[in-house]
């Protein structure tokens, strides 16, 4: 495994956002993490990139435990991220944004720069434009291109389809596929489960801080429970294991039924043993 | 009738709008010309500006600039000191985007370093200038190290507290003179007989403010050169990234905490230098010289002028220092007039009088760049529970 999370717990104050998550991403894979709002998807990515501290558990990358490594050093280790809400630098030009992506690198980055412009010809057209004045889709392209500038081994993508027109979503996803084909491992977080599962090799379903399912993406695509998980389950049904007063994030969708959770967790165990 | 009123209203609104966009375009045009100017054209402007600054204390300007108070005195304080302080605060607010409401504390630390060391241990001005700068920088690090994990308004509150703590310590410490303060602070050593524009520029006495003003101009020029070099360095790029999106900066490989601390220390050092010069001119410092209001005023100067852009910051500091003096003619209404002008300028030019292009783009995008909301920056190795302080 290139990247492995072992029983990771993360807290926001007293609230536990990740309740012991274990996932693995092998080299060359596209792995997707799907789930509803507040399930802990973005928190998982932030934990991997070092923006959130671990409460317990381990993050292994390339065989080394990077759980205590500061975020800015993880870039050089090989973790690149296009963050939630794109996170481009609005006052800088497109070109300056891309150069910021290579900030940590001391070596020559002209090859990656050319590649970013080749993958996203739109960025080349807007080279000297302030990034904040671009459309959402262009900003997303910039965020991905910028992350590639660091020449990451694994690219973390946080909801690249958010707020984009369907046409653009298609385009972005096919570029993600192309990036993977060129050798970058990808961990993709998505609410758009349909799209993500079509692209990914494997996927995990996340619900209120727990992995409830893990399987090859094609299998999950036809799974009725996945739809339930993506939508957050049926309203007002049962008192799921996670649906206590300590809901991790306000606005979390109601939890899935307890059977779902139990079954999901079991299949997760199986998945890891296999 | 009503039609008439409406059209005249529209016309005046139109004229107003035209004036506004006209000013904006003029500033933009000047900046474009500056960006494409040859190096020697720029140097001519630099030299003219410095010479102009040196001739500012000219007596003939006094009736226009300041009919009520001594022009040369107010040119040193508040104008010169405010400009230097605003340039220092600009490193913190304009470059790194952190809201510091206790900046006056660093000025006070510089001033008190000068006051105590010169009166108690008889150190001279030229030894104490670097020491005051160092003391302020160190206190910047001491304040910054535990607090810079906070962001936006939370950081502002902590820095506000720091400013008050420094003042209260000075008030309650016998060694620092208590509320009475410290007097008989020596002036810098004089060097007689060097004349420039009718002034002995290296002869430091209590009455003549001009030599101190020239000293201040020297410091300001140094600080401008230093700031400019920082702005276009790797450090400056890191600050821009932190200001625009701190999390994104961190995952680009910018050691955000280290760079925030650095900007705090540099800002503090510049404030400290202003303190040393101020104390040696006034020859007397007391806690009452360093109220919170002054931190707020310097902040207003930076924001009003255009945070992150040196000509803007200088213009802002000049106006904020000079307008209340100019308004002395309207006696008790001067604060009202000054406040009215500040409000008006922020309505008309929210991005500042002369904003930097980058800051303007940030404003238009909506992030504003004064630090995002949000309580804490959790780094690995800090416990999340401790930062939020949930009880």
TrEMBL record, chain A:
Annotated segments matching region Disordered: 241-274
UniProt cross-references to InterPro entries, sorted A to Z: AAA+_ATPase, ABC_branched_ATPase_LivF/BraG, ABC_transporter-like_ATP-bd, ABC_transporter-like_CS, BCAA_Transport_ATP-bd_LivF, P-loop_NTPase
Segments forming domain ABC transporter: 3-233
Biased composition (Low complexity): 242-256
Family annotation (PROSITE patterns): ABC_TRANSPORTER_1, ABC_TRANSPORTER_2
Pfam families: ABC_tran
CDD domains associated with the record: ABC_TM1139_LivF_branched (cd03224)
Keyword set, alphabetical order: Amino-acid transport, ATP-binding, Nucleotide-binding, Transport
Top-rank lineage group of the source organism: Bacteria
Keyword Transport among UniProt keywords: yes
Positions with biased composition (Acidic residues): 257-268
Example GO molecular function: ATP binding
Family: Belongs to the ABC transporter superfamily.
Alphabetical list of PANTHER family matching this protein: HIGH-AFFINITY BRANCHED-CHAIN AMINO ACID TRANSPORT ATP-BINDING PROTEIN LIVF
Name of the protein: ABC transporter ATP-binding protein
UniProtKB/TrEMBL annotation, chain B:
Cellular localization per UniProt: Cell membrane
Annotated segments matching region Disordered: 359-391
Membrane-spanning residues: 43-62, 74-93, 100-117, 123-145, 212-230, 261-280, 292-324, 336-354
Signal peptide: none
Topology term for the membrane: Multi-pass membrane protein
Pfam families per the UniProt record, alphabetical: BPD_transp_2 (PF02653)
Coiled coil: none
Xref: InterPro entries: ABC_transp_permease (IPR001851), LivM-like (IPR043428)
Keywords recorded for this protein, A-Z: Cell membrane, Membrane, Transmembrane, Transmembrane helix
Presence of keyword Ubl conjugation: no
Protein name: Branched-chain amino acid ABC transporter permease
């Amino acid at each position: 495994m290139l990247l492995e999370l072992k029983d990771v717990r993360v807290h926001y104050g007293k609230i536990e956002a990740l309740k012991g998550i274990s996932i693995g991403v092998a080299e060359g894979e596209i792995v997707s993490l799907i789930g509803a709002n507040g399930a802990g998807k973005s928190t998982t990515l932030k934990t991997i990139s070092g923006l959130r501290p671990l409460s317990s558990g381990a993050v292994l990358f390339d065989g080394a435990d990077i759980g205590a490594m500061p975020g800015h050093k993880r870039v050089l280790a090989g973790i690149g991220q296009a963050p939630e809400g794109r996170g481009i630098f609005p006052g800088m030009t497109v070109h300056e944004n891309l150069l910021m992506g290579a900030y940590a690198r001391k070596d020559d980055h002209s090859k990656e720069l050319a590649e970013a412009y080749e993958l996203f010809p739109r960025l080349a057209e807007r080279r000297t434009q302030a990034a904040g004045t671009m459309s959402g889709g262009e900003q997303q392209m910039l965020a991905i291109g910028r992350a590639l500038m660091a020449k990451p081994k694994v690219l973390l993508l946080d909801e690249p389809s958010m707020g984009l027109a369907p046409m653009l979503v298609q385009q972005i996803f096919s570029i993600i596929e192309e990036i993977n084909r060129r050798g970058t491992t990808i961990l993709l977080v998505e609410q758009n489960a349909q799209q993500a599962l079509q692209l990914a090799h494997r996927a995990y379903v996340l619900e209120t801080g727990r992995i409830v399912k893990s399987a090859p993406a094609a299998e999950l695509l036809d799974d009725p429970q996945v739809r339930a998980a993506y939508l957050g389950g049926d309203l007002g049904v049962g008192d799921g294991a996670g649906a206590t007063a300590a809901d991790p994030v306000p606005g979390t969708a109601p939890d899935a039924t307890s059977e779902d959770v139990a079954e999901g967790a079991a299949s997760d165990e199986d998945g890891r043993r296999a | 009738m009503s039609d008439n009123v409406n059209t005249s209203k529209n016309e005046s609104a139109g004229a107003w709008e035209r004036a506004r966009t006209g000013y904006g375009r003029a500033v933009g045009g000047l900046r474009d010309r500056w960006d494409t100017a040859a190096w020697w054209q720029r140097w001519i402007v630099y030299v003219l500006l410095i010479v102009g600054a040196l001739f500012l204390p000219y007596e003939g300007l006094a009736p226009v600039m300041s009919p009520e108070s001594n022009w040369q005195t107010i040119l040193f304080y508040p104008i010169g000191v405010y400009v230097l302080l605003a340039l220092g605060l600009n490193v913190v607010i304009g470059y790194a985007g952190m809201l510091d409401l206790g900046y006056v504390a660093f000025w006070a630390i510089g001033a008190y370093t000068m006051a105590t060391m010169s009166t108690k241990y008889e150190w001279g001005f030229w030894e104490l200038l670097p020491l005051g700068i160092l003391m302020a920088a160190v206190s910047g690090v001491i304040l910054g190290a535990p607090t810079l994990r906070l962001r936006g308004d939370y950081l502002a509150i902590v820095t506000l507290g720091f400013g008050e703590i420094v003042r209260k310590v000075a008030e309650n410490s016998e060694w620092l003179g208590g509320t009475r303060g410290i007097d008989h602070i020596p002036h810098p050593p004089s060097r007689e007989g060097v004349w420039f524009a009718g002034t002995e520029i290296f002869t430091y006495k209590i009455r003549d403010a001009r030599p101190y003003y020239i000293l201040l101009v020297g410091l300001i020029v140094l600080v401008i050169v230093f700031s400019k070099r920082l702005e276009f360095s790797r450090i400056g790029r890191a600050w821009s990234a932190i200001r625009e999106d701190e999390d994104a900066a961190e995952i680009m490989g910018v050691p955000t905490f280290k760079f925030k601390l650095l900007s705090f220390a540099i800002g503090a050092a510049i404030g400290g230098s202003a303190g040393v010069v101020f104390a040696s001119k006034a020859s007397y410092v007391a806690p009452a010289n360093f109220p919170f209001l002054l931190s707020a005023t310097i902040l207003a100067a930076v924001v009003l002028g255009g945070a992150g852009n040196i000509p803007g910051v200088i213009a802002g500091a000049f106006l904020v220092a000079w307008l209340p003096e100019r308004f002395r003619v309207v006696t008790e209404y001067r604060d009202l007039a000054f406040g009215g002008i500040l409000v008006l300028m922020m309505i008309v030019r929210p991005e500042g009088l002369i904003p930097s292009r980058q800051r303007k783009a940030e404003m238009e995008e909506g992030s504003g760049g004064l630090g995002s909301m949000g309580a804490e920056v959790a780094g690995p190795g800090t416990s999340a529970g401790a930062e939020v302080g949930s009880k």
